[in-house]
Amino acid sequence: MAPSMHNAQPWKFVHRTGTDTIELHGDPERAMPREDRDHRALHLGCGAALFGLRVAAAHRARAAATRLLPDPANPWHLADIRLGGPGSADGELAALHPALPRRHTSRAPFTEEEIPSEVVDGLRSAALLEGCELVVPGAWHTDTVLGLVHESQMLEAADAAVRAEIAAWTRTGAAGEGPDTEGIPSYAFGPRQFDVTSPVRDFDSRRRVPGRASAVFEKRPRIALLGTVEDSREDWLRAGQAMHRVLLRATLDGLATSLVSQPLEWPELRSVARDPGSALGFVHMVFRLGYGPPGRATPRRPAADVLTFV
Questions:
Q1: Is 233 exposed, middle or buried (0-12, 13-18, 19+ CB in 10 A)?
Q2: Which pTM was predicted?
Q3: pLDDT tens, 46-97?
Q4: Residue 144: how many CA atoms within 13 Å on its side-chain side?
Q5: Distance from C-alpha of 157 to C-alpha of 171, rounded to nearest angstrom
Q6: Which of 199, 107, 105, 196 is nearest to 144 (CA)?
Q7: Is the separation of the CB atoms in 55 and 241 below 8 Å?
Q8: pLDDT value at position 207?
Q9: What's the rounded Cα separation, in Å, for the pair 97 and 61?
Q10: Residues with Cβ < 8 Å from 125, sequence gap 6 or more?
Q11: b/e 218-229 (16+ beta carbons within 10 angstroms → b)
């Protein structure tokens, strides 16, 4: 149920029979070489899946001790998760379990209602628990990030390879598309923006879905930036876990959420997204937060495709 770029679900779990360990592997066949050249977004998605496993284990009263990047000889072996005995669970993780099936990306308009400071503080705390920082930008920084979103949209429109990659992960019902257990289905696109004020990605920019409605979105989107001091593969996996934790906490707090990765997919824009006055060295994800209709569940790959017993 974890979020991943274009809902590619780029993870594989392996349980070795007779042990209490589950391995997490990245799936290079689900990589996006044009939009995610260094596989950072793939690591974020796998980190999110890892956090989902930790929450599920806690729900079953089991602890999940995690070791990141356990095999230097195999870069796709991302983590080992050792399950503890009954009664060893983290209660704060278990409390997030009801949000797992409820958390969905919402590409609908949000209201202009302010988010209470105590809710924002809770989201910051969620990121800190995973070794990351969540920054709520001020007015000038928000304008900068929103400007980078619009700039990334222009770069995307001018790059045929990027457009083709996005098309490969969208599902409109047309012939020749990929399996309907993955990718972004047309019902999850949300309405078109009547006037483009919100950083919601339009997966149907070429207007392939007939009858799609238009709507007015919030004028001042509320965003938050998730990042780390360094930019290693281990940081990416930590950021993926923090991303999922923040989203689950936001869901329990009644917020609607969507992820904004467009400017972070272009190295020349990603470096500009951070506040130069902040200790946050590298931005990994931008959240759009607010009050509005929740998104619908997107398809999921069968368990047999992502879990192997050996």
A1: middle
A2: 0.96
A3: 999 999 999 999 999 999 999 999 999 999 999 999 999 888 778 999 999 9
A4: 16
A5: 19
A6: 199
A7: no
A8: 64
A9: 12
A10: none
A11: beebbbbbbbbe
Name the residue among 14, 10, 34, 38 with its Cα closest to residue 24.
14
Q: Give the whole-angstrom CA distance, residue 110 versus residue 71.
A: 44
DSSP string covering the chain: ----GGG---EEEEE-TTSSEEEEEE-GGG--TTT-TTSHHHHHHHHHHHHHHHHHHHHTTEEEEEEES--TT-TTEEEEEEEEEET---HHHHTTGGGTTT--B--SPP-SPPPPHHHHHHHHHHHHHTT-EEE---HHHHHHHHHHHHHHHHHHHT-HHHHHHHHHTEE-S-TT---TTSSEEGGGS-PEESS--S----TTTT--STT--EEPPPSS-EEEEEEESS-SHHHHHHHHHHHHHHHHHHHHTT-EEEEE-GGGGSHHHHHHHS-TTSS--EEEEEEEEESSPPPPPPP---HHHHEEE-
The length of the chain in residues reads 310
Q: What is the pLDDT of residues 100-151, one digit of tens each?
A: 999 999 999 999 999 999 999 999 999 999 999 999 999 999 999 999 999 9
Tell me how far apart the alpha carbons of residues 40 and 230 are, in angstroms, rounded to a whole number: 13
Long-range interactions of 249-254: CB distance < 8 A, separation 24+ = 249/96, 249/99, 249/122, 249/123, 249/126, 250/123, 250/287, 250/289, 251/99, 251/102, 251/103, 252/95, 252/96, 252/98, 252/99, 253/119, 253/122, 253/123, 254/291
Query: In 3D, which of 288, 258, 204, 212 has the Cα closest to residue 5?
Result: 258
Task: Assess contact for 105 and 257: CB atoms under 8 A.
Answer: yes
Tokens of 69: 């990047």
* Residue 94 contacts residue 288 (beta carbons within 8 Å): no
